[in-house]
Amino acid sequence: MEFKTPITLKRLIESFPEEARRLIYREGKVNIVILINNRPMEEFGGLSTVLNENDVVSFIPPVGGG
Description:
Blueprint: E1 7-8, H1 9-14, H2 18-24, E2 25-26, E3 29-30, E4 33-36, E5 39-40, E6 50-51, E7 57-60
Antiparallel strand pairs: 1-6, 2-3, 4-5, 4-7
């Protein structure tokens, strides 16, 4: 996705369809791993992180197994 102005990670997620947002959020909390340029979003400020041009955001679903 491309945006003309800087956007926060939260705003990016809010632009997704409802079904996608439900996969990301559960009970008001982020339910998946979100990486920005292959590093955890928490290293940048979580959902309030401002995304810059050419940033790569990855959404990694939880994996179960054993």
